[in-house]
């Protein structure tokens, strides 16, 4: 999702340009074939375990930001009444509001990243499974030349 809309593969592909096609390979493919131009570009190698690990870390940070917001609220409870008449009371309220806004923004971004990393890992796992099934079905088919009809003059004597 980008700013409230789903980015389709075709849309993303048009923004990368045609040069990206030269360096694309299947994940984990170790073949030495391809153009010399492709060899100079880095391979796409997605590790879903690492993506899920990043999702977990983002989730941990989300929890810590929630705790920090709770602690900030508790630390400021009763502060207004206790500092009544002091010139700094209004300034402390503004500082607290500023920090709460920042902590909420960080917490929300951590939640967004957690969801994005998990979604990317799930999508990649699905793509890998689909690709393996497709490749397996292709490799189990008879070669194209075996499907051709036999020549009528093949057994002619």
From TrEMBL:
<protein>
    <recommendedName>
        <fullName>WXG100 family type VII secretion target</fullName>
    </recommendedName>
</protein>
<feature type="compositionally biased region" description="Basic and acidic residues">
    <location>
        <begin position="122"/>
        <end position="135"/>
    </location>
</feature>
<feature type="region of interest" description="Disordered">
    <location>
        <begin position="117"/>
        <end position="157"/>
    </location>
</feature>
């Amino acid at each position: 999702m980008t700013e409230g809309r789903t980015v389709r593969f075709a849309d993303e592909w048009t923004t990368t340009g045609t040069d990206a096609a030269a360096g694309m390979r299947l994940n984990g493919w170790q073949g030495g074939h391809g153009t010399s131009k492709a060899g100079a570009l880095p391979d796409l190698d997605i590790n879903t375990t690492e993506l899920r690990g990043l999702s977990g870390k983002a989730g941990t940070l989300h929890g810590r930001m929630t705790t920090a917001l709770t602690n900030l609220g508790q630390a400021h409870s009763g502060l207004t009444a206790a500092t009544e008449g002091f010139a700094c009371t209004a300034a402390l309220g503004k500082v607290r509001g500023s920090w709460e806004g920042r902590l909420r923004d960080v917490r929300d971004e951590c939640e967004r990243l957690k969801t994005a990393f998990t979604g990317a890992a799930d999508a990649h796992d699905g793509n890998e499974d689909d690709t393996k099934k497709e490749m397996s079905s292709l490799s189990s088919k008879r070669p194209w030349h075996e499907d051709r009809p036999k020549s009528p003059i093949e057994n002619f004597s």
